[in-house]
Amino acid sequence: MRVRTRLAVGAGTIAGHASRLAGRGAGDQISGRVMLGVDPELIAKLARDQRVVLVSATNGKTTTTRLIAAALEAEGEPVVSNVTGANLTSGVVSALARARGPGFAVLEVDERVLPRVYDALRPELLVLGNLSRDQLDRFGEVHVLSDRWRALLAANPEQVVVANASDPPVVWAAAPARTTWLELGTGWTGDSATCPQCGALLGWNDRGFACPNCGFCTPETAHRLVGNHLELDGATIPLRIALPGRWNVDNAALAIVAATRLGVRADDAALAVAAVESVAGRMATYTVPDGRTVRVLLAKNPAGWLEVLRYVQDVDTAVVLAVNAHVADGKDPSWLWDVPYELLAGHAVAAAGERALDVAVRLRYAGIDCLVERDVMRAVARIDGPSVTVIASYTQFYGLSRRLARASRAARPASEPERPA
Amino acid sequence: MTGTGRGTGTGRGTESTLRVGLVYPELLGTYGDRGNALVLVERARWRGFDAELVEVAAGDPIPDSLDVYLFGGGEDDPQTMAASGMRASANAVRRAIDGGAVVLAVCAGFQLIGTGYVDAGGEVIEGIGLVDARTVAGAPRLIGEVIVEPEPSTGLPTITGFENHGGRTKLGPGVRPLGRVTRGGGNGIGAVDGALAPNIVATYLHGPVLPRNPALADLLLTWVTGGPLEPLPSVLEEALRAERLAEARLTGWRARARDLRLERG
Ligand SMILES: [Zn+2]
């Protein structure tokens, strides 16, 4: 390491420590920012000895990253990873700076940041999950992102990619590269009405999508997720995962395929993935002083909310919806009206967060009475139910995890929430 | 209402079902536009009307049998697709309006019921010309809370919403805006937002606009049913309105403190 690089890492680490002490979160984001200010070429230098795996998607990238890292760690490989969800350039640098020698760097990258860090990181493998609407007021259109990814891979056609074959914007993006396709089945189609290639209306069927105008369609692949079985390279691998919800089965399948492209045996990857119980505090379960368990789920956009609501629908639990509209959440919570909160019928429901009133009005028109209590901890305490599930937007989620962990220390933790690395 | 009761121009009869049409939700539904439809359907039902939400799928012709036509917001490609479908069905929509149907057009929908939209590349997307309003893509994008003081003739209270668009919309001579913008950008020209025409309301406001402004929803329902409506309790809606209006009216250091708070992760 050259002197300048070492100085940069040193300054950044101190800033990150100070930020953690000040209670401003995991510190990864801010310490990375400081480092970049010192040495703009840091990423390339830090990544030089690492086998880099990049994971990008609108939803599930943190979990998929964690699962890939778990599969590699189970093989005894040294792995650095930005598991706290710090996925901007700064978070990537912080993670790389923790490497103590050659090994794997499994990094989730914000879908908008991916083209900016790609050249510096030269990834051995790129894992692309899905693209849907997220934080619209800041970033605009899904098609624009998809086009940017495609331009990137068209310029790097030798790039090895594992990609979701069932998501039109991802297929459009990954088609120019050396891509292993995994068919995950049709999920959220709300942002894929038109063909990325020609703009015509996409047709959908059981097999996937097909454009009647230009022929752009779901790519042929022998790798697919069928229920809880992954068909991969001619074998069928049962997936039994500890993480809740259908969306995590998708994440697990993608992670296992990715791990096999890095040399891990599929069965071993499946075992390692199955053992992961919580990712960066997401999906962690806490026990609050009144003895009830509280599970916290993060939902960042309509596609994510739909998945989480489908899961909660069948669980006997009270539900607290905690929504903010900070920049990181998207400043316009209009998306509340695209989410089928009608699925919560029969549950006790509370609206919390800075935008509790927007949630409450939405629920009124879904025919669901709710308790309005802005403070999410008070909402948890006040709502009746055998257990409580909090579904939180991004900025609600992080504050809440800290507060619940604190409250949980008074009681016996149901499962120890993961510490930020 | 469909069937025999239509055609008077003031109200569409008394029997049958109020049909709230959500036009091309796959293309024009980017900003929670379904919410506007839900609010109209539910507020009609709460008053004892039969009401149903009718989705007009992208690619299908728009029927002339709907009572409310909702044209929502959309991205560039979808907006172009929507425009061609709307042009093919423009006569059906016009017939319906002449028969007493009402139109709420938001953002891209507003641009498309106008005479045309010139996108950032200079390409012209022809609208259906329900109102004389022409839009040119501009910069910067207008994003944030908006307050509109509506035209007094509407009898509406202050309107609250959230905008996110690059359009600059010029109203033709004699076209009335929905109101005067006191916070935010609206049409981006002349400190006004939207447009008003007989049985037509157009605006740039999301939120969506009807959940945040139940009086506007009720105005549309009054037009389409042809009579005054009983008031509904709106405690939650009023609380939300008050909160949004207060937030949008912050100035000086208070506004900066709010912005800093919202930037925080
Ligand atoms: Zn096509």
Topology at a glance:
The complex is a heterodimer of chains A (421) and B (265).
Chain A (H helix, E strand, L loop, with lengths): L2 H19 L6 H11 L3 H6 L2 E7 L4 H13 L5 E3 L7 H9 L5 E6 L5 H8 L3 E4 L7 H4 L2 H13 L5 E5 L3 H7 L3 E5 L20 E3 L2 E3 L13 E3 L2 E4 L2 E4 L7 H16 L4 H9 L10 E3 L5 E6 L3 H12 L4 E5 L26 E4 L3 H10 L5 E2 L3 H7 L5 E5 L1 H17 L11
Parallel strand pairs in A: 1-3, 1-4, 2-3, 4-5, 5-6, 13-17, 14-15, 14-17, 15-16
Antiparallel strand pairs in A: 7-8, 9-10, 10-11, 12-13
Helix pairs in contact in A: 1-2, 2-5, 4-10, 4-11, 8-9, 10-11
Chain B lengths: L17 E6 L10 H13 L4 E6 L11 E4 L4 H13 L1 H9 L3 E5 L1 H6 L2 E3 L5 E3 L6 E18 L8 E13 L7 E5 L8 E2 L1 E3 L2 E4 L5 H4 L1 H12 L9 H15 L2 H12 L2
Parallel strand pairs in B: 1-2, 1-3, 3-4, 4-12, 5-7
Antiparallel strand pairs in B: 5-6, 7-8, 7-9, 9-10, 11-12
Helix pairs in contact in B: 1-6
Bound molecules: zinc ion.
The site of zinc ion has 8 residues of chain A, from loops.
